[in-house]
Amino acid sequence: MKYRVVLLAAASAASLTAGASFAQTSAPGGEVEELVVTGTRTVGRSRLETLAPVDVVTAEALQQRGTTELATALATAVPSITFPRPSNTDGTDAIRPATLRGQGPDQTLVLVNGTRRHATALVNTNGSVGRGSASVDLNAIPSTAVDRIEVLRDGASAQYGSDAIAGVINLRLREASSGGGLSVTYGSSVTSFDGYYGGGKDITDGATTTVSGWQGLSFLGDGFLTLSAEYRSREHTNRSDIDKRVTPNRITSRFGDADVDDLSFYANAGKSLNDTWELYGWYGYQHRDASSAATYRLPTDAQQNIPSVYPNGYLPYLTTDTEDNSAGLGIRGEIAGFKTDINVVYGKNDIDFGVQNTINPSYGPTSPTSFQAGGLTYDQIVFGADFSREFEIGLAGPLNVAFGLEARQETYKINQGEVASYARGPNTAVTFGSRGFTGFTPSNEVDVDRNNVGVYVDLEGKVTENLTLSAAVRYEDYSDFGDTTTGKLAARYEFTPEFAIRGAISSGFRAPALQQQYFTSTSILYINNVPFETGTYPATSNVAGALGAKPLKAETSDNYALGFVFRRGAFELTVDGYKIDVKDRIVLSETLTGSPTGAPGTNGRVIYDLLSPYGATAARFFINGVDTDTVGVDVVARYRIVDEQAGTFDLTAAGNYNDLEVKRTPTTTTLPTPTSLFARQARLRFEDGTPKHKLTLQGDWSREAWGATVRTTFYGDVLSPGTLADGSADNSTGARGLVDLDVRYTFPIGLTASLGADNVFDVYPRQIIPSQNTTSAAPFSSFSPFGFGGRFVYGRLAYKW
Predict the structure, then answer these.
(1) Pick from 60, 59, 29, 16: which is nearest to 699 by CA?
(2) What pLDDT shows up at residue 42?
């Protein structure tokens, strides 16, 4: 282990000091001013001139690593983004959520070409980061279709509407009328670890093949049509330890990344109609098949197994068949001097669940061993109209006046599974439904919709030669929970051309998702290894109301930001502190369990009597009532050196410190004994489920045909809280540092060959000790911010024309 520490430190030092070795003999290269459109409606703002911090991640930067997943690459590039890789969390294994600045996955707004992207139909109901959220699936968009990504690290509800509490991620699609590229990447995990019970050792798995390409075409003369496609096939990984409960001792579980095959296609087009007006649009599609494992069922467990069907026990597999569609059509030009953009965007996410290698024990030996378990569908259609114009009113610069509206229609559906996936068969002594994932019942079916309209005004201008101010206000009206108004004030003051301070104060909101308002299911949930027939109920249901739920309302936030920008020659430094106060966060409640043997008038007996008519013995529901305060700081330093002898060096040090504290939690008073609806384990997931600090040191070098990237990412400790009140079942990942390396060479014919490894030194999070992991199924925490796959070695061939 000592040699890894030494090499890790050396790689980090090389990332930062390479510039010092050549600074005295080189002339700083010219700065590349990256113009941004996110966070401002003023044309021509560069990344360093904005009133709020904006990261710009290019397509080239996304490709200089082994992963071909968009969300994983983005989390590596932007320290304030975390993208864990949970396992054994049902659909979340295949559709994983990302977080920004430690907030919920659904508290970051995702845009495509500046328009609102639809969320996934999946609700994260298990014990993972983002529990209770329904967020956007970033991996549904192939990286080959993306030209660049702009990440606004500031509250922006007044500018963009719901969900922008933590910030905004804007994916700009590739626009090209000529040229193209083709890339083939193959890699796999080549790793080793020593399990407590003898598992692990040397492992090669998770083989991943990605074929992607794009082509730019002229379109009706002066227009463009850019076609992008990607196919990815990833085999599962397994980091389970040996199971001491079975004879002979062997690995019985599967804990790691799911098997995934996905095919994506994007088309992006634009065409000038005349000197003023332009027509534009895009279409995107992805089909994803994934298979992940549940927990192993022992052959002797009468509640789980029929020995004549599975004499050696069995491991159920959950399959998710996901189709994702998005399309946009718009026109932009000028009306009465106002720059005008009118568009309509449609998005749909459809998920069908299946269970294989399983059984419904209540049917006995005649039970099927695979089931169709039902599905979820979410879609939305958004109409937007934006107008902006600069006015000369005697200030140091023009006043940019922007206003517009956005109207949105949303639909959410739950479809039932086949009868045997949820029904109770002849054997009433065992719990109902297919094991691993219980199908949706007829009573779970929903088909609901809502609409909302928002209007905004956004002003920005230079008041003096040194001072720029902006103000925005937005009003939203939802058909299901009412209206809300948010505002934002921001300022930037330049003391010198090299140094400026910037800050903002804003209010924000997040409307309750239809998925949170109406998701319902009845399934088997294990609490301390005891099965409960658990119902998840809408907050407006009679059951939830009797247990203390109330109709959901919007989350609200207050955001405060203050920072500075410094640049001199090829060096730039930005430091941005922030405070995010969120009230009435929407969460999934604790699971309230009933007991038929409880004394009359006790909580257990009251809950049991309430749930019995619904065929459940435990219940949970969505509820407002959690308040959180977050303080943090983002620091980004960059230095670029161009030397005729040594080549070009682009050095970056970027870090995030984020501390979230839960200030208030809800309690139900409808039961005989008041009970917390958001107890210790849930609170600690919020507070310590993402790293409090994350630091990335990166050095990019290029000289003629050669290029290389060395990246070291340090992750702070993350806690995975256990169920015991004294904390003895808690475990933590430990602070870790990972080194990535990519070396590439471009041949004269335009073919680039790359070799590299993510996590070169095969670093793992801290193992869970045996007393906290008695089944050996999960030796590492799913809360690990970098996963637990170990070293990933890859090769890539890319050709551009």
Answers:
(1) 16
(2) 77
